[in-house]
Amino acid sequence: MKFSRLIIQVLLVIAVIMSIVLSFFIWTNTARYQRGRNIDVTSSTQANKNEIPINQVISPTSVIWHGDSGQNLIYNSNDNIALSIQKVMKDWKIDSPRLVSKKDGAYYQKIIQSKDVLQLVYPSSVSTSILGYLLNNNSLRNDKSYSFNRILINLKDKNDKNIYLANDSNYAVYKAPVRNATSAPITKLIKKANIKLKIRLNIMKHGVFTFFTNPVSLKTYSYVISSKEDGEYTTALFDSNTNGLVTSEDNGVYTYNYGESKRLVSDHNSGELSFEDYTDTSVPKTKLAFLQRGYQKVVNLQNSISNLRLYSANWGDKDLVFREYVEGFPIFKKSHFGSIRINFSRKGSTENFLNKVLEVPVPSDQAATKLKSTNDIFKGLEKVGYSPNDVQNIEVAYQWESETDNEKVVDLKPTYYIKIDGHWKPYSDWTNDTAEDK
């Protein structure tokens, strides 16, 4: 009996030691945090990246609800409201839209500030044919294509059986009849929002700006980033045929040429890469084909695309820009072009991208950042000589900051980014002042 009791005691000691060791590894492993949280950035492997559908990459990034308390930008950290509403809309029968108004700023401001209306806002304009493709709706896909960047849905007026498509660039408003629709699922999603920021939509010289009427408090995030060796890119981009590659190097910039048909330039100092395919001379003929081909190139480039969103689509220049998003806000300063930039031309296609991809959230000991109201930001700009008419765009965004003591970790800090004279810069660069509310 004494011997068996001794064995039990020894086994208990061993179990306690193993528990302590396992706990140590769990709590010191940077991959442990927030695996189950949805903050628009999730881990995605090579095996499942193709499961991220195009209607997630090309989707609204902002949801605005005008209820009894006024207009609010809303978000749910555990359930992306925009994607959930998009899924609800797939069951709707949306008929061909017709023009209601155009180039009428007063009417447009009234529409986008309407009470009991929910808005899904895209960072760049899309077309009705694209929306039809994303929602699997043939009425929209095959109809005359109109451009818009807002979808407006009245959730209280039972007599208004329409959705409205609005275009900030020319104040056009289109009305599309809807059948087989109910507001109940959307109302339920709105009630689950755990982030509500008071806003006002203002029409200014360069477009419709989202003004945060009160100081904005946002979390700071840290992420482990991943990267790939140049060989992984050459294998993927040169169709696995790397026998004929000619490689050269100059001050950390590596160039890989495959005859005169393809070239990859990899700057190991900045982590930026540029791939030119001179055989890809077919320019997309429709906006839908334009985005489809851009999406496919994104899938081919990155292991993790679940956090990417289409940020800008310039149909005239055949230029696409994708950015990573956190809590519905874009990430800046990762590079001068965003996360991925793709251009199509008769001379070939060009892909610019960064060999740094957000992978896993890690704990951050930094307190939430409280930003000034948008009005105060404009006052600060005016103090240093910039008028409201100089501001081409303004965004609350996350700024990419690499940690000095750990090159595998990046900090994402909220701030205001402002576009003046065609250049995006943080508020502090334009004013030498902080965007934080004291």
Count of individual helical segments:
11
Low-confidence stretches: 19-47
What is the average per-residue confidence, as pLDDT, rounded to a whole number? Answer: 88
The count of strands amounts to 26
User: Main sheet, how many strands, which sense, barrel?
Assistant: 14 strands, mixed
Query: Which class do the helix and strand fractions yield?
Result: alpha+beta
Proportion of beta-strand residues: 35-45%
What's the alpha carbon Rg, rounded to whole Å? 25 Å
Globally, the shape reads globular
What share of residues is helical? 10-25%
Alpha-carbon distance between the two ends:
69 Å
Pfam families: YycH (PF07435)
Keywords: Membrane, Transmembrane, Transmembrane helix
Protein name: Regulatory protein YycH domain-containing protein
Organism: Companilactobacillus alimentarius DSM 20249
Short structural description:
Helices cover 24% and strands 39% of the residues.
Q: What does this molecule look like?
A:
By secondary structure, this protein is α+β, with helices and mostly antiparallel strands. Among the domains are: 50-206, no CATH class; 227-315 and 340-356, no CATH class. The protein has 11 helices and 26 strands. It has helices at residues 2-28, 54-57, 81-89, 105-112, 128-135, 138-141, 184-191, 230-237, 287-301, 374-383, 427-431, and strands at residues 62-67, 70-75, 93-94, 98-101, 117-127, 147-154, 162-167, 172-179, 195-204, 207-212, 216-218, 221-226, 245-250, 253-258, 262-267, 272-277, 308-314, 319-326, 329-332, 340-343, 349-354, 357-362, 369-371, 391-403, 406-420, 423-426. The strands form 3 sheets. Strands 12, 13, 14, 15, 16, 17, 18, 19, 20, 21, 22, 24, 25 and 26 form a 14-stranded mixed sheet that branches. β15 and β16 (272-277) form a beta hairpin. α3 packs antiparallel against α7 (184-191). The longest helix has 27 residues, at 2-28. The radius of gyration is 25 Å and the shape is globular. The N and C termini lie far apart (69 Å). Mean pLDDT is 88; it is low at 19-47. Residues 10-429 form the Regulatory protein YycH domain.
